[in-house]
Amino acid sequence: MTTKDYDRWLDEVLQGTGRRVLDAGCGRGELAAELTRRGHAVTAIDVSEAAVAAARASGVPARLADLADYYDDEPFDAVVMSLSLHHMHPLGTVLGRASELLGEGGVLVLDEFAWDWADAAAAAWFYDAASLLAAGGLADFPREAGRDPAERWREAHEDHATGAAMLAAVAERFEVRDVRREPYLSRYISGKLTNGSTELVNELWRIERERIASGALPPTGLRLTAVRL
């Protein structure tokens, strides 16, 4: 799912159309398909056979490949990673390869989730909202009554790279141009919905944005753009 805000950001960082883009960790291919519709030449790769199969089934000619050792004959104008870098290890290896794949002036575009930016209030809001939707038959999400939300959050994400680690690893290999903290928890929950009505999704986003604006919740989404050194 994309939003108008997200689409505007992509247009801003990719600067027009006709860019040669590597979608690293393409998943089911939604972003690659959207970038193709916007006039870019997209190469989509993922290490998951299931994800590549799903992307191909939707019309995206994805390739089974690992960014850490991916090779292409021509440099890319942009390497885009949407919710994939926090799964990649070691960070230095994959980001080093991303830099090598970019041409002069090439841009790294990260759309990420920084789980370490979530505090106890964020964990409680996330699990309360998800459990309520699951109880109503609207989300495929396990309910674990009585567990401490912050502890549950840490256990669920401790194998993911942190926002701090991703920022540090990028800064070692790129010139960081822009870092934005954005809402993310609603997007996380929306991916679990079995009835993903637009009205319900929009309401989740509204509530999260208002809580962030009031200081009750921290933003846990990360958008970053950087150029190769």
Features:
alpha/beta; 7 strands; globular
In order across it, which strands form the biggest sheet? 3-2-1-4-5-7-6
The CATH homologous superfamily name equals Vaccinia Virus protein VP39
Compute the separation of the termini in Å: 32 Å
Number of helical segments? 9
CATH third-level topology: Rossmann fold
Strand percentage = 15-25%
Measured on Cα atoms, how large is the radius of gyration? 18 Å
Please tell me about this protein's structure.
The protein has 229 residues and is α/β, with parallel strands linked by helices. The chain has one domain (4-228): Rossmann fold, CATH 3.40.50. It is built from nine helices and seven strands; from the N terminus they run αβαβαββαβαααβααβ. It has helices at 4-14, 30-37, 49-57, 91-101, 120-135, 149-157, 163-173, 185-190, 198-214; strands spanning 20-24, 41-46, 63-64, 76-82, 102-113, 174-182, 221-228. Strands 3-2-1-4-5-7-6 form a seven-stranded mixed beta sheet, sandwiched between helices. Helix 4 packs across helix 7 (163-173) and helix 5 packs across helix 6. The chain is globular and about 55 Å long. InterPro entries: SAM-dependent_MTases_sf. It comes from Nonomuraea rosea. Keywords: Transferase. This is Class I SAM-dependent methyltransferase.
